[in-house]
Structures are given as C-alpha cells and as structure tokens.
Design brief:
heterodimer, A: PmbA/TldD fold, 5-stranded mixed barrel, B: PmbA/TldD fold, 5-stranded mixed β-barrel, 10 helices, TldD/PmbA family protein (chain B)
C-alpha cells in the first residue's frame, strides 16, 4: 500500500491534502517531494536563486545547440521551485518542510516532431547543450513513428521581459515561528469552541521560472502562491457520530498578505466568507461551532431543490463541469486513457448554437486575473497571457488551446495556457482560471434567497465526482442551510446534489452582482501520464440553480 | 556514482554518512530509481520519457527535537553538509511529543520483488511492447490510448542504533483505453507486474478491444439496486479505501468507520460476510513487497479482516505506546482472499446482473459509513440467464464497501490488479454483490 503514496492521482486530488492534514491511516506523512528536490536552509528561501544574466547564458547555450543540430524550434525553461509546508494538529507541530528543486527542461522540434529532455542543477553551458542534444535525439527517434508533423502557431518574440506576482509580503520572508504561532493559535481557538480535533496546514510556493525560445523571448518570472487550510472535527462519543468542517479559505496567487484581512475582504451572512484576505482565527472559531451543530442538524429529505451556491462551493463545480470539458486536448482524445474525453465535441462549437447554459451564464478563461493561482505574464511556451470567452450568453464559443493545437480551431494565435509543473516535466495544455462572470444587474445574496421557496444554500467544497466525459456529476459541500419561503430556517446534513452538466448550467436563473464575486481554487489539478499537478482558480458570485436533484447520503453500517 | 546501489554499496555509503553524526540519534534513508515510460493516444505515440532519481534523507534528533534534511549529491562534503543541516534543524525545531526514538536492529522476512527482466528492459523493448498494442488497434480501426511505465530501484536505511535494511524492487504498469471510431464504445485494461516477462501487451489489448467493440450499442437501464459482478480492477478502487482507513488512532479518536458509540472501536467485531478475509504478506510471490516499513519496523504477514471479523488495525509506534498495544506498521501490500471461480463461471451463474469493468472518480461521501461515489466506465454489460446480453449505459453509484461486503454472493479467484485511482497494486478477486446501489445514469462513453 505504500505505492499509494508514491504517485499523484488523476484529476483533482484531495486525498494528498487529507494526508497532509493528518487524516491518513499512516499518520503523518511527509508530502511527496517533486523530483530532485531537497530540503533547504532559511537563507535559500528568499532572493533570486540565480541571476538573470546567468540564466540567459545557460538558455542560449541550449537554444544554440538545438538549432545547430537541426531543431526548427526550441525552448529552454530554467526553473527553481520552492515549497514550504507547516503542519500542525491540536497543540503540536507535526512538520516543517522546505523543498527546493532546480533544473533545466529543453523542448525541441526536429523533423516535425517534439523531443524533450531535462537535467538537474546545471552548472555550465556544456551541461545545457548536452541536454539539448538529448532532446534532439529523442525527437529524431520519435519522428520515425510520426504521421502528422507538429503545426506550431506563430509567436512573436518579446525580447528580454519579466513578470512578478504583485504580492505585498513574500511568505518565505515571514519567520517560521510566526507561521507556527498563527496555526497553533487557530487550533487553540477551535478546541475552546468545541472541536475535539483540529489539523491545520500552511502551504507556500514560489516558482522562479526563466523561459527562452528560438522565437526571441527571454521571460523571467516570479510566481507566489499560498494556501492556509484546516479541518475541524467534532465527535459525539456517546452516539459514535462525528462531523468535520473544512476551512472556507481559498489557495491564492498571493503572498502572506492573504492572511492579513481588511473589513472589505469579509462577506457577512450565515457564516463569514472571504475575498482577498482570510481571517483564519475567525473562520476556525465558527468552524468548531458549526462542526458541533452538524452532529445534530436535520438530515436532508431527498428531492428537487433550488440551489443557492456560494463561490467557495461553486468554484469546484465550474472546475469539473466547465474547465475540464473545454480543454481541447481532451476533446481531441489525448487524455482518453486517464482523465477522459469530453461531451463538448468540436461539432458543438462549430454549430455556434450549442446552449451550454442559460443566457445568464458567461464563462471566461483568464490567465491575467490578479491574485489568482493561474496568473502569469507568459505561459510555458512564451505566449503572453490573456482573457477569452468560453461560453457567452449561454452559447459555447471556444476551448482552451496551446500553440500546437490552436490551428484545429482555425485560430492563428495560442491562448497562452501551456504549463509544466516542474522543469523536469514537459509542458502541455493546462486549465487557465475559468470563471463565471458576475450578473450585470445588482443582486445581493439576501435578495436571491428571498425568492427561493424550497432550496438549499451550500457553502464550501466537499465530495466531488464527475464522469470521464463530464456529463454526470455529484457534489457535496461544507455547510448546508435549508431555505423555506425565502428564509434560511436551519442547518442540514447528508446533502449531495447530482446533475448533468448541460441541464445544470441551463437551470441557472440568476447570478449575484460583482460585489459578491470571489475566487476559489486548487493547487492540485492532476492531468497527464505521468501525472502533473497544476494550480488554478475559479471565480464566481453566488448563483442560483433551479430544480436540482438532491440526495441523502446517510447510511447505516 | 551509480543510481542503483547494491546492498554492500548502500551499507558502505550509509555507514559513511552516520560517521558524521553528532546527534543523540541519527537515521539515514537512501533510495535510487530509474523509470521509463511511453504514452500514446489516437493510435500514435505522444510522449516518452525517462527519469533517474536518487535521494538521501538524514534525520537527526536531540531528545525529542527532530530535524530532517535531504540531498541528491553524494560527495563527502555534501554528505557531511546534509548531516550538519539536519542537526541544525533539529536544534531549532520545537519538541515533538510524539517522537518515540529510533529502533535497534530488526529481523526481516525474505521477499523477492526485484526482477532482472524488468530492470534490464531497454527503451526498444518498451517501444516494441507498445507497438504490439498499436498494431492491433490500428488494424481493427479502433483507437488506442495507453501508457506503459516501468521502474527499478532500491531503498535502504541505517541508523545509529545499528538497524540496517535494504530492499530492491521492480515494477511495470500498463494501461490502455480503446475506443470505437464513432466514439460510442470504450474498453479498458490495466496490468501490473514485478516481472515484465509476465506482461503480454497484445493479450491485454485484445481484452480492451473486445470491451470497446461490445459496448458500442449500450442500452439505458433504470438506476436502482442491482446484482453486480465487479471485475478485480473495479473492486480494487473500493477495497483500497477499506485498507487505507484501518488506522487504530482514528478509530480510538471516534472518527473512523471503525469507531463505535461509547468511545469504543469495532476491533474483534464481525463487520462483513464470513467469506471476507483481508491480509498483508510481503513475501507473497505474486505481490512481493518490502519486508520493512518506512520507520524500519519489520513487516509480517498480518490479517486485518478474518472471516468478516476486524482482527487488526495499524498502530503507529507512538499510538501503540500510548494505548499499551503492540505497534503495527502501515503495510506495504494488501491481499483479499477469494474462491476458485473464474469470471466466466461467475457470469454463468448469474440470472440477472451487471458486469462492471472499471469504476472511476471514486470520492468519499461520508467517512462515518465509508460511503463512496463514482461511476462505471469502459465496459458495463447486462447479464441475463448466465450470458452477457448487451452493453448498458454507465451508472453513478453511491455505495459503502462495508455494506457491499455484507451483500456478498460469490468471490472468484484473486488476481493482481492496478488501482486506477492510486496506481497501487493488489491481489483482489472478482466479486458478485447483490443490491449494489446505482443512483443515476450517465451519458459518458
């Protein structure tokens, strides 16, 4: 069973995070480290790992070697990937882990075929040139099996450019003690408010990526991400029942500033929800009380309900039922053996009339959204990032595509959503942030609920499952409230809803306005074989879906 | 330095690292592995790759203050540096009250999980194995998308109390999805072995092709409770969630399916049909596994569920000490006993039921009851009067493996399978279950 821990899984992988949270059977497990990573000392956590002129020198050695050996195109990625985890349970620190991974990945086209090779910790130009030679030899070998040569969308070179995530405070500059104190203080608040157990985690990422290509782009980028999270458990030993409540935080493309809140970052209501600032202490205090309340909450009566879905919940439904089916490589069959294919076939796009959702539904892809996990200046094949429509007024209008596939859509320019999770893995199409646009007419959550006769209001993400072509799905949540005649009347439990993607999005009758717009997301969207992990955000305002099938998940064993 | 060290080389290197240690306790883990893969889709090879990985992890402790550092360079200066760094981190770390110290020398069972056939597999041989699969799907006008990945490597550990352990292993996983040209049929096969000479990619490909062609004209059945025959590949993804959740601490803490009212656990209680026996055994020749756990404890043959009764759970060394129990390490393999019936026999003996090839996107719904949801995929068939009648559209299920193993009809002959969720390898029988809960239909192929 240890093999279970060695490889990342398909699609969105919650199990790894549950393990981090100490819920695993094996007790505390160190997170799986990326290939070639090693622990780092505090002085390596901040500043530039290697200066930009050295990176350019190494990259040019790779590009020149590739060209000299017959490559018609080549790109060199020099990456330094830094992770820090702080893991606690109750009043104990379970682990503090820093990992760093540094190396070069080189991709070439020779005889119309891709080749890729990577090398750890390159010290000089000769090492990078040798790596380029390996990539060329792989391309030549694979070219013999090729029937259709690669068609690469043209891309202008940007020259020497840079992009930095607009963070206010680098999380790696914050002393470990401050992070430990934050988590242990939060845990103590949970325990004094009725929790029996609590696990909390702070996860921080800094990717320093240098991209160079034969198109003449040299892009130096500095990307920061942060993810605070917890699980609070309440146990009623007498009845043998237990209930959990997870944090309502979102992983963000931000620095430590995400943990410093302003009043404007908070959304009041039945429980506090958060925008671009997260108050862990407040959320965990509420979570402890709510976990206890769940133990005695009313078990839902199965049937059709109007659902009011908070952005902290809806992001995951968007991810699974919109983000994935509109990945062009899936549509074409490249992921058939693993993540699957898609119901949203090319003929549906070409018809220009495929009603993906109701006219309230506008879904956009966006690699530029400030504070999001997917935001970068340039993607991993040197394309400047942008925002584009996927579904406009309910009609399917586009997919997500990269340089070697966008021609299939008759487009001349990549969408700029190519990504590799490490210097040692080959870049391919990955989901940009995909978000539901807020409604244009002013509408508050309160006013939305006022109109609902029989409904369930769902906050937070829970269990999630969808078929391999993205038709049939089932989602749970963290908090469920019964709505009767326009009023929230109490907490529910044992709730999950089942729907079909197209029916669900066509049952969307209203989306709240921009003032309610917030991001959710995940660090660990898995795709490819061997599987690669990607971080992605999904924004929305609270939205209403009419007549959705709700099931009761309580069982006796 | 070579990536794959022999036992003697590993012992020498580990001893050298330990000689630098100044801490109260020091434990060193060393590993190396080489893997290669080919991926194909739309009947074309899409990517291929190779990866070499080696790692040295040093854990130093001063009392209950523990620090860990890792390095992938092996010159003397680097070895000393990683030891010093782990010592620095230990001095800075808060006390870990759950640290129980390192173990002295242990005795391990013999287990052979290393096969030269797999370790010596060349890129050409890997490509040839995939080419056999591609030739078959291309010739039949079916579309293949597959992945083959083989690896060989070793793990070793040594500590300052004289414990030494070494285990070399090899593995190959092959999986394939075959779809009909019109996209209406889909079939799947997965195979996992320690010894690559057991892998027959052509035979496996024929199974996925047969399932794809046969499932092209699926009819819809009403969702509801059905008798099902789960092929081992389908059963594995539910069964592994029983294995993963057999932790004593969670049960004692009242937050497991093994917890009971009044703060007790279900240890010693009958939880499933008396034909259900689940155990671990690192020496099983069909599923060899390392005879030692990550912390150096010896892995023995141990039964978790014996004739339906919960007989053991995992106890970490800390939790065992606290509860006054014997530690039981998290095992390295899992085996479910079965009967002698073949899948064909089981179909023959079924009046009315559904044959399930694969289950997909398995997620927990309620940890209290071990309720899981997911869908059937890549070959779901209606059985009537002992024969496969026609393909049926895929279903979503909501089911607990605990309830399922109380509704047991027949267990067939166990075989080695690869979990499509975790990639873990197990020995699992095909199983016939009554009243399996399908809650809705899916249009997915």
């Amino acid at each position: 069973m240890t093999t279970h821990h060695q490889k990342p899984k398909t699609h969105l992988n919650r199990r790894d995070f549950n393990q981090l949270l100490g819920m695993s059977a094996a007790g505390l497990l160190l997170p799986t480290m990326p290939a070639f990573s090693h622990a780092v000392s505090a002085d390596e956590l901040v500043g530039n790992y290697i200066d930009v002129s050295t990176k350019k020198r190494l990259a040019d050695a790779g590009l020149n070697a590739a060209k000299a050996m017959g490559a018609t195109y080549s790109d060199v990625r020099i990456g330094r990937y830094l992770n820090q985890f702080v893991l606690t349970r109750e009043n104990k620190v379970q682990g503090i882990v820093n990992t760093i991974s540094y190396g070069v990945g080189i991709r070439v086209i020779v005889n119309g075929c891709w080749g890729f090779a990577a090398v750890a910790d390159p010290k000089d130009e000769a090492t990078v040139a040798k790596c380029a030679a390996t990539a060329v030899s792989i391309a030549k070998a694979n070219a013999r099996l090729l029937t259709e040569p690669v068609v690469l969308a043209p891309q202008k070179g940007y020259g020497e450019v840079s992009w930095k995530a607009p963070i206010k405070q680098n999380a790696f500059e914050v002393p470990i003690k401050e992070k430990v104190d934050l988590l242990l203080t939060a845990n103590a608040a949970a325990m004094t408010n009725g929790a029996n157990f609590v696990n909390s985690v702070l996860f921080m990422v800094n990717e320093q990526k240098y991209f160079a290509s034969t198109d003449g782009t040299y892009a130096d980028q500095d990307i920061h991400r942060i993810g605070p999270s917890f699980t609070v458990t309440a146990v009623d030993a007498q009845s043998g029942k237990f209930a959990t409540r997870n944090s309502l935080s979102a992983p963000m493309g931000m620095g430590y500033d995400y943990l410093q809140t302003n009043p404007s970052d908070k959304v009041g209501g039945v429980t506090t929800r958060y925008g671009k600032g997260y108050d862990m202490l407040e959320d965990i205090t509420l979570a402890a009380k709510q976990a206890k309340e769940k133990l005695t909450a009313k078990s839902v009566e199965a049937g059709k309900y109007d659902l009011v879905l908070d952005p902290s919940h809806l992001w995951l439904t968007i991810h699974e039922s919109v983000g994935h089916p509109l990945e062009l490589d899936r549509v074409l069959g490249y992921e058939a053996n693993y993540a699957g294919t898609s119901f949203a076939t090319l003929d549906k796009l070409q018809s220009k009339s495929f009603q993906y959702g109701s006219k309230e539904v506008n879904l956009v892809a966006d690699k530029t959204q400030v504070g999001s996990l997917g935001a970068v200046g340039y993607d991993d094949e040197g394309v400047g990032t942008k925002k584009w429509d996927l579904v406009r007024d309910g009609i399917l209008v586009n997919y997500q595509a990269i340089r070697d596939q966008v021609h299939i859509l008759g487009e001349k320019e990549s969408h700029g959503c190519c990504y590799a999770d490490n210097w040692s893995s080959v870049q391919f199409q990955r989901m940009p942030n995909v978000s539901l646009q807020a409604g244009k007419t002013p509408l508050s959550v309160q006013d939305m609920i006022k109109d609902v006769k029989k409904g369930v209001y769902i906050i937070g993400d829970g269990s999630f499952s969808i078929d391999q072509q993205r038709y049939n799905f089932q989602f749970g949540g963290q908090l469920f409230y019964e709505i009767k005649d326009g009023q929230i009347v109490g907490m529910l439990k044992d709730v999950a809803y089942q729907a079909n993607t197209r029916e669900f999005w066509n049952s969307c009758t209203a989306v709240c306005d921009q003032s309610d717009y917030r991001l959710g997301g995940a660090f660990n969207d898995g795709k490819g074989q061997p599987s690669q992990s990607s971080a992605v955000s999904h924004g929305s305002a609270t939205a209403r879906f009419n007549g959705v099938n709700v099931i009761n998940t309580a069982r006796k064993i | 330095m070579a990536t794959i060290l022999t036992e003697a080389e590993a012992r020498a290197l580990l001893q050298k690292v330990l000689n630098y240690s100044k801490a109260d306790e020091c434990e060193v883990n060393l590993s190396g592995d080489i893997s290669g893969n080919i991926r194909y889709a739309r009947n074309e090879v899409s990517t291929s790759g190779a990866k070499t990985n080696q790692n040295l992890v040093v854990q130093s402790a001063y009392g209950k203050k523990v620090g860990t550092a890792t390095i992938d360079e092996f010159d003397d200066a680097s070895l000393e540096k990683v030891v010093r760094r782990s010592e620095e981190l230990a001095k800075l770390a808060p006390e870990n009250p759950e640290y129980v110290g390192i173990l002295g020398p242990q005795t391990y069972l013999k287990s052979n999980g290393y096969f030269a056939s797999t370790a010596n597999l060349t890129p050409d041989a890997r490509a040839a194995a995939v080419a056999k699969s591609l030739e078959l799907t291309r010739a039949a006008n079916l579309t293949g998308a597959g992945f083959m990945e083989d690896s060989h490597g070793y793990q070793a550990m040594m500590n300052s109390k004289g414990l030494f352990a070494y285990y070399p292993s090899t593995n190959v996983n092959f999986s394939l999805t075959v779809r009909t040209a019109d996209g209406k049929g889909s079939g799947y096969v997965a195979r996992g072995y320690s010894d690559v000479s057991k892998l027959d990619t052509a035979a496996a490909t024929r199974i996925a092709m047969q399932k794809a062609a046969a499932s092209a004209s699926a009819k819809a059945l009403e969702p509801g409770k059905y008798t099902v025959i789960l092929e081992p590949t389908a059963a594995a993804v539910l069964m592994e969630n029983v294995f993963f959740n057999m932790d004593a601490r969670s049960a004692d803490e009242g937050r497991s399916f093994l917890s009971k009212p009044g703060g007790k656990t279900k240890l010693g209680e009958k939880l499933m049909d008396p034909r259900v026996t689940i155990y671990s055994d690192p020496t099983n020749p069909d599923l060899p596994a390392s005879p030692w756990a990550g912390d150096g404890q010896a892995q023995k043959k141990i039964t978790w569920i014996d004739k339906g009764v919960v007989t053991n759970m995992f106890y970490s060394r800390y939790w065992a000490q606290k509860q006054g129990k014997t530690p039981v390490p998290f095992p390295n393999n899992a085996i479910m006993a079965g009967g002698t019936a073949s899948l064909e026999d089981m179909i023959k003996g079924t009046q009315r039921g559904i044959l399930v090839t694969k289950l997909w996107y398995i997620r927990p719904v309620d940890p209290q009851t071990l309720l899981y949801t997911g869908l059937t995929r890549d070959g779901t068939f209606y059985i009537e009067n002992g024969k496969i009648k026609h393909a049926v559209k895929n279903f979503r299920f909501n089911e607990s493996p605990v309830i399922m193993l109380n509704n047991l009809e027949v267990l067939g002959k166990p075989e080695r399978v690869v979990s499509t969720e975790s990639q873990g390898n197990y020995l699992i029988p095909p199983m016939k279950i009554r009243e399996f809960t399908f809650s809705s239909l899916s249009d997915a192929v």
